[in-house]
């Protein structure tokens, strides 16, 4: 079977090989990291490499969507089954987690 992704207030559904359906949730994670905005391209590539290794270590459905680097913080958007999975990924990667918020809707200028 395949994957279906719904935007806005609809759940993201993951179809597993056993035909079990689990509802995935989208989260935004705030990571306080002084000097994040001054990281070099090489340092950012290392963060990416570490995050990808963390994803593989989970052994379950999990998607890192993207991250936004600010002056002293990094904001990450992940899709996971639970907040605990987000924390497990961060622990493996040794990334700070200051807040995790479940995203209920995504809007932009095209939203009617």
Topology:
Layout: E1 12-15, E2 21-32, H1 41-58, E3 62-69, E4 73-80, H2 83-93, E5 99-103
Antiparallel strand pairs: 1-2, 2-4, 2-5, 3-4
Report on this structure:
- Helices cover 26% and strands 33% of the residues.
- The chain is α+β, with helices and mostly antiparallel strands and 112 residues long.
- The protein has a single domain, classed as ORF SCO4226, nickel-binding ferredoxin-like monomer (Alpha-Beta Plaits, 2-Layer Sandwich), CATH 3.30.70.
- Strands 1, 2, 3, 4 and 5 form a five-stranded antiparallel β-sheet that branches.
- α1 crosses α2.
Quick recap:
The chain is of the alpha+beta class. It has helices spanning 41-58, 83-93; strands at 12-15, 21-32, 62-69, 73-80, 99-103.
CATH architecture: 2-Layer Sandwich
Q: What fraction strand?
A: 25-35%
Q: What sequence of helices (H) and strands (E) makes up the elements?
A: EEHEEHE
Low-confidence stretches: 1-20
Offer a few descriptive terms.
112 residues; five-stranded antiparallel sheet; alpha+beta; Alpha-Beta Plaits; 26% helix
């Amino acid at each position: 079977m395949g994957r279906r992704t719904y935007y806005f207030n609809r759940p993201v559904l993951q179809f597993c090989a056993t035909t079990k359906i689990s509802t995935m949730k989208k989260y935004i994670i705030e990571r306080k990291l002084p000097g994040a905005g001054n990281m070099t391209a090489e340092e950012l590539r290392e963060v990416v490499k570490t995050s990808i290794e963390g994803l593989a270590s989970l052994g379950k459905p999990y998607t890192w969507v993207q991250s936004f680097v600010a002056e002293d913080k990094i904001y990450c958007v992940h899709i996971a089954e639970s907040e605990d999975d987000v924390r497990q990924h961060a622990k493996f990667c040794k990334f700070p987690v200051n807040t995790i918020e479940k995203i209920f809707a995504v809007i932009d200028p095209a939203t009617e």
